[in-house]
Amino acid sequence: MKVLKITSLLSFLLFLMVNIKLPGVLSQEEYLGGSVYIYGQGPLKVRTFKEPFYADGKVNGYAELEKKKIYIPILKIREITYLAEDKAIVTTQDGMNYNLTNFYPSGCYVEYEYWDDANGKWSWGKAYLCNDAKGCISRITFGEKTRSFKKCPQEGIYFPEYFNFCPYCGAKLMKVK
Questions:
Q1: What is the rounded CA–CA span in Å between residue 8 and residue 3?
Q2: What letter does residue 21 receive in the DSSP assignment?
Q3: What was the pLDDT predicted at 6?
Q4: Which of these ranges, 10-19, 58-67, 96-105, 116-125, has the smallest mean pLDDT?
Q5: Which residue range(s) make up the domain with 62?
Q6: Does residue 135 belong to any structural domain of this protein?
Q7: Among the listed ranges 9-18, 66-75, 106-115, 152-161, which one has the minimum average pLDDT value?
Q8: Is 102:58 a contact under the CB 8 Å cutoff?
Q9: With a threshold of 0.85, does the pTM exceed it?
Q10: In this structure, are 54 and 127 located in the same domain?
Q11: How far, in Å, CA of 124 to CA of 108, rounded?
Q12: Residues 87 and 159 in one domain
């Protein structure tokens, strides 16, 4: 009788773990969405990424503080800010920041499925990962559900709503709908 109760309890707990989503925990599908920030345009809400940001993929580079090459799984990344040439800041889901040189996928095209307001549907886009050329992606956020952004009045760059000041020039950011 005890074995039956324990087995039933374990089965119930397994059912809960598989079928109930905890608040604040993103599914893989939700996580792989986010936003891309493109110079000369506003941010785009992204439903999913393709190359080079597959769910089982990784980014890598030389971590200056750790003084070694590191690999960070895509599913552990919250944000990538591309700085210059082959440099980027990678922020993980647990809030760690890594300043990387020899950053891969530096210089790659990024494919993404975004909401196209003009056509009222999801469309595929592709942009180059670079730091300051018009039409290039300067920042990517993963797992972001927000639809509101802020914009730097001096740089014209868009940021997630939780930013208050531009990290490039220090200007106070303005809300954008």
A1: 8
A2: P
A3: 60
A4: 10-19
A5: 26-144
A6: yes
A7: 9-18
A8: no
A9: no
A10: yes
A11: 16
A12: no
